[in-house]
């Protein structure tokens, strides 16, 4: 608010306006519009930043300053305050439509506000100027547009500045936090009115302006014609008047008049004036310029002559025959005089005297037509003038007009008629018609106040404006009432839609008629009926689906479907199904189910329909009397119409559903679609019953197999809860703690070791373990996953009593250990003597070959004995020698040890260190881990062809340290993978037998891994190589007994 006075001082300028018109009826000059460019900035900024109260106060203060120092109008404070409030409402509204989003932009709001301000400014201009209605209306509508531009230009400047603030400083210009629907969104009537009403108002405004301009043009044209006719009449009489005066004065200026005695001159002059009635003053001068006589003013003297007359008399004495001069009227007179000076010459052309005749324009009979025509303008406030060649007023119809007014027309002297606008000395705008006199440099001027033309234009425009306003009002009322009826109807339809959405489908739509609204109402009614029928169908389908889902008995599941299929004309609904949907039906007998008052009477058609529906999905018989196969059945009832539907589920035919009707009928698409849906539910029910029957039969068979199996078997779900166990499991002492179905495995079995095996992850392989029960027996427990749709859904545990086999294995191990130990000394002796044979004497090549073969055989036997002894120590469960393990150093030692062997086959042997840092507190039996890694790398080198590669990697996998050996060798056949880690097992492939071996290396690796609580797995593809992975847990594990059996690899 403090900046308001400053904005009125700086950046002000005038707009150029040529031909500007002043305010009517005020004696002031028209001023150029003054633009206060910054005057709107305070209240525009306040409207966006402060709010409605601040904007109103700042606008009121700004308007007060403008009104007091600039406009001097009481309307200005209210005008500016109102603009500020409107602008604040525009930029702070929170409506969400595109128009209102743009309206929140400050510059856009300023532009739209300027359009709203134009009619407001015109109204203020209309009310604030003096004059009659026509003058004010003409000034407001046609003469004030530069003032309008001067008013809205500051608004544009303020809007542009506010837009910059809006973009650059968004925190200063609040945005609405939540947008709400606009009035046009909440009401169709409001939306239509907001679209059409501005267009109608613009159209009315344009038509009003056009009507006013056309009426003004017509009135101006009429006024031009009137003034033009008047001035032409007057102008046509002036030459005749002058010519008559010349003729009369020449006829009177004769030598006889000069020769008369002085006492007879006055009588002669009196006679001439009375005889002609043209001159009102005649004066005779002698050759010296002295007055000889005068009439009717006998006392006429030289002092009564004007300067022009004195000059003319002197010229006449010199011989100029005729002269005419004008004498303007006095200030109290309306008409001037015309002086005719004629020289009286003798036969020699010498002036004997001069005759002066004065003619008064006001009373001269020759000028009365012209004066009468000019005087007729006075009835409407107009005036008429006769101007001489100098632009002086010779005649005026009104004494109120000052003689100085002749200055107004001096610059208008022309030889062509001119019609223009001008102002009187009192500031009244008037229309002027300038008509030159033909043959004389005189002119006739007629003026008429502009208000006469404005009043005429108003009289022309008012009827049209009244008709326009009447029609606009009628159109508004008709539009509002018609839209009201439409919106009322739409509200009823909206209420109907709400009731339909709430499920109230009993009441009909109240809209009637044949127009679009009636068609919409009929559509709503059809939608209600269709939706009601559809909901009824859905309710039936819901009940049917619930019955199908809840009941596995085919009779209980299908009977609701048949009941739902019975319509008004349906008297029978039957289902014919295959035998497999029930377990208690033997042979090939079909399962039939019926519903309806006479369903059983049509059972003889079941087999026919069953066979017909194998070849088609839908069978419709609109009139059965026209079908020979059905109508030819003697002494048997048949329906009048029939529709049958095949029951297919997943390309399996389960039977047919058919409905019989009492009368012939046309089957609509909706009815067929509904019955097809019921048929689909019946097919699902039949498929479920068939599956249930098959599953029940399979369950009974499985139960019989489990019951007859002498080995304990337990089945668990995916949550490790007991599902099933056979009688053999209950008979094993110390195996089952609580044989309750649904209990966790930890509570079902007594052995903690077996519980850990049952609850541990098994992924896609079979987990095995030897379990010793409290009764002393040792069982081989095998846990396999039960898979369903690529995911584990349970586990099955099979236990086999291997106590006898363990005793035999122990005896075998003792025997092998004893034999192996006893063989070491003979083998050493044989090796020594064999190597010493070359010392005894020279051996030939054949002998050397025999000795080499003996040495290789002894070395193979030694390796076998050492492997057997190592395997025996591992199987005996000796305690591990745990120490800190450095995996990277260990791998490098193994690679350095086996590099020469790899170089012999040109195999690249490399170590890839892990990307992440390995823990430093890993403990293991370093010698055993090294032995296992040597076996894996040596095997990889052995079965990799020349030029291949073997890569050793270290990784962390599921909290385990993994030694991964990857080769590009010959690969392992899938049939060899399950037995790969068994003792003495070797593949039957030719490529495998080309390499020497004992078949104990991988068994030793497996025993070492299991002694550390880890595992060894293999993935391989023929021709592409193999990947052996030895996993050792990071945390320290207590020694565990060796596992019997072998894991099934994923690959």
Give structural notes.
The protein has 1051 residues and is of the alpha+beta class. It folds into five domains: 4-181, Arp2/3 complex 21 kDa subunit ARPC3 (Orthogonal Bundle); 218-452, PAS domain (Beta-Lactamase, 2-Layer Sandwich), CATH 3.30.450; 532-696, Beta-Lactamase (2-Layer Sandwich); 709-801, PAS domain (Beta-Lactamase, 2-Layer Sandwich), CATH 3.30.450.20; 877-1051, Histidine kinase-like ATPase, C-terminal domain (Heat Shock Protein 90, 2-Layer Sandwich), CATH 3.30.565.10. It is 49% helix and 18% strand. It has 30 helices and 29 strands.
- Helix tally? 30
CATH topology of the largest domain: Beta-Lactamase
Regions with little confidence, pLDDT below 50 for 5+ residues: 1036-1051
User: For the largest beta sheet, what order do the strands appear in spatially?
Assistant: 4-3-7-6-5
The residue-averaged pLDDT reads 80
So, CATH architecture of the largest domain?
2-Layer Sandwich
Radius of gyration over all CA atoms, rounded: 65 Å
Largest sheet: 5 strands, antiparallel
């Amino acid at each position: 608010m403090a900046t308001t006075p400053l904005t009125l001082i700086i950046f002000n300028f005038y707009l150029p306006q040529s031909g500007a018109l002043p305010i009517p009826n005020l004696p002031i000059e028209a001023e150029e519009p003054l633009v206060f460019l910054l005057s709107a900035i305070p209240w525009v900024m306040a409207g966006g930043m402060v709010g409605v109260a601040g904007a109103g106060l700042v606008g009121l203060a700004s308007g007060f300053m403008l009104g007091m120092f600039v406009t001097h109008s009481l309307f200005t404070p209210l005008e500016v305050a109102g603009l500020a409030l409107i602008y604040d409402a525009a930029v702070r509204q929170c409506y969400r439509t595109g128009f209102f989003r743009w309206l929140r932009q400050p510059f856009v709001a300023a532009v739209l506000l300027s359009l709203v301000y134009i009619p407001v400014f015109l109204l203020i201009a209309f009310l604030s100027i003096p004059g009659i209605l026509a003058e004010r209306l003409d000034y407001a509508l046609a003469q004030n547009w530069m003032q309008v531009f001067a008013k809205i230009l500051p608004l544009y400047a303020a809007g542009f500045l506010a837009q910059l603030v809006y973009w650059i400083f968004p925190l200063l210009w609040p945005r609405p936090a939540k947008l709400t629907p606009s009035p046009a969104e909440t009401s169709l009537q409001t939306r239509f009115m907001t679209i059409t009403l501005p267009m109608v108002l613009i159209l009315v405004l344009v038509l009003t302006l056009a009507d006013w301009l056309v009426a003004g043009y017509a009135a101006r044209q009429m006024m031009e014609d009137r003034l033009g006719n008047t001035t032409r009449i007057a102008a046509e009489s002036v030459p005749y008047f002058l010519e008559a005066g010349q003729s009369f004065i020449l006829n009177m200026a004769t030598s006889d008049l000069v020769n008369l005695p002085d006492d007879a001159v006055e009588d002669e002059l009196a006679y001439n004036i009375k005889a002609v009635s043209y001159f009102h003053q005649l004066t005779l001068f002698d050759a010296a310029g002295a007055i000889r006589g005068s009439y009717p003013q006998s006392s006429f003297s030289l002092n009564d002559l004007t300067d022009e007359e004195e000059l003319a008399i002197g010229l006449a004495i010199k011989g100029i025959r005729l002269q005419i001069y004008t004498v303007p009227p006095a200030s109290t007179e309306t008409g001037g005089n015309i002086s005719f000076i004629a020289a009286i010459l003798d036969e020699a052309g010498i002036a004997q005297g001069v005759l002066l005749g004065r003619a008064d324009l006001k009373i001269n009979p020759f000028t009365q037509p012209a004066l009468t025509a000019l005087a007729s303008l006075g009835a409407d406030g107009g005036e008429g003038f006769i101007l001489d060649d100098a632009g002086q007023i010779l005649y005026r119809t009104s004494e109120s007009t000052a003689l100085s007014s002749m200055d107004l027309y001096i610059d208008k002297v022309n030889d062509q008629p001119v019609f223009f606008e001008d102002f009187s000395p009192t500031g009244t705008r008037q229309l002027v018609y300038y008509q030159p006199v033909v043959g004389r440099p005189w002119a006739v001027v007629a003026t008429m106040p502009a208000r006469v033309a404005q009043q005429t234009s108003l009289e022309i425009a008012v009827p049209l404006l009244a008709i326009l306003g009447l029609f606009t009002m009628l159109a508004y009322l008709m539009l509002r009432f018609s839209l009201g009826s439409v919106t009322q109807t739409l509200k009823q339809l909206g209420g109907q839609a709400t009731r339909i959405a709430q499920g109230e489908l009993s009441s009909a739509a109240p809209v009637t008629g044949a127009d679009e609204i009636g068609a919409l109402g009929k559509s709503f009614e059809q939608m209600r009926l269709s939706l009601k029928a559809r909901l009824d169908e859905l309710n039936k389908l819901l009940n049917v689906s619930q019955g199908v889902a809840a009941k596995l008995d085919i009779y209980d599941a299908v009977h609701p479907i048949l009941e739902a299929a019975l319509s008004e004309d349906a008297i029978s609904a039957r289902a014919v199904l295959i035998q497999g949907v029930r377990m208690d039906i033997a042979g090939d007998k079909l399962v039939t189910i019926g519903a309806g008052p006479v369903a059983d009477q049509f059972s003889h058609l079941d087999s026919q329909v069953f066979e017909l529906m194998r070849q088609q999905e839908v069978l419709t018989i609109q009139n059965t009397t026209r079908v020979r196969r059905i109508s030819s059945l003697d002494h048997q009832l048949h329906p009048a119409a029939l529709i049958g539907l095949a029951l297919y589920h997943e390309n399996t035919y389960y039977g047919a559903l058919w409905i019989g009707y009492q009368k012939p009928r046309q089957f609509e698409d909706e009815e067929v679609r509904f019955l097809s849906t019921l048929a689909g539910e019946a097919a699902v029910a039949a498929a479920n019953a068939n599956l249930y029957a098959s599953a029940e039969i399979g369950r009974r068979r499985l139960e019989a197999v489990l019951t007859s199996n002498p080995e304990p078997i337990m089945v668990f779900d995916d949550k490790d809860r007991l599902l099933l166990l056979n009688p053999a499991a209950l008979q094993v002492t110390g195996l089952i703690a609580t044989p309750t179905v649904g209990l966790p495995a930890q509570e079902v079995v007594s052995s903690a070791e077996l519980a850990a095996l049952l609850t541990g992850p098994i992924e896609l392989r079979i987990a095995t373990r030897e379990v010793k029960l409290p009764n002393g027996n040792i069982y081989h427990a095998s846990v396999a996953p039960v898979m369903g749709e690529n995911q584990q859904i349970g586990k099955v545990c099979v236990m086999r009593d291997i106590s006898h086999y363990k005793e035999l294995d122990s005896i075998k191990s003792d025997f092998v250990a004893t034999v192996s130990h006893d063989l070491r000394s003979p083998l050493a002796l044989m090796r020594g003597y064999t190597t010493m044979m070359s010392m005894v004497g020279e051996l030939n090549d054949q002998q050397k070959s025999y000795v080499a073969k003996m040495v290789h055989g002894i070395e193979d036997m030694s390796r076998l004995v050492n492997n057997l002894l190592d395997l025996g120590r591992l199987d005996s469960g000796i305690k591990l020698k745990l120490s800190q393990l450095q995996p990277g150093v260990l791998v490098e030692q193994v690679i350095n040890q086996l590099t020469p062997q790899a170089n012999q086959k040109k195999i690249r042997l490399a170590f890839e260190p892990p990307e992440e840092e390995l823990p430093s507190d890993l403990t293991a039996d370093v010698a055993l881990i090294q032995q296992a890694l040597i076996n894996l790398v040596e095997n990889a080198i052995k079965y990799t062809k020349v030029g291949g590669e073997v890569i050793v990697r270290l990784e962390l996998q599921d909290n385990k340290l993994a030694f991964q050996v990857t080769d590009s060798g010959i690969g392992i056949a899938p049939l060899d993978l399950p037995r790969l880690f068994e003792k003495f097992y070797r593949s039957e492939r030719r490529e495998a037998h080309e390499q020497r071996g004992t078949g104990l290396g991988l068994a030793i690796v497996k025993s070492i891994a299991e002694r550390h609580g880890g595992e060894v797995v293999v993935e391989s593809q023929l021709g592409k190589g193999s990947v052996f992975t030895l996993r050792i847990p990071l945390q320290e594990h207590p020694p565990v007994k060796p596992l019997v059996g072998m894991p099934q690899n994923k690959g």
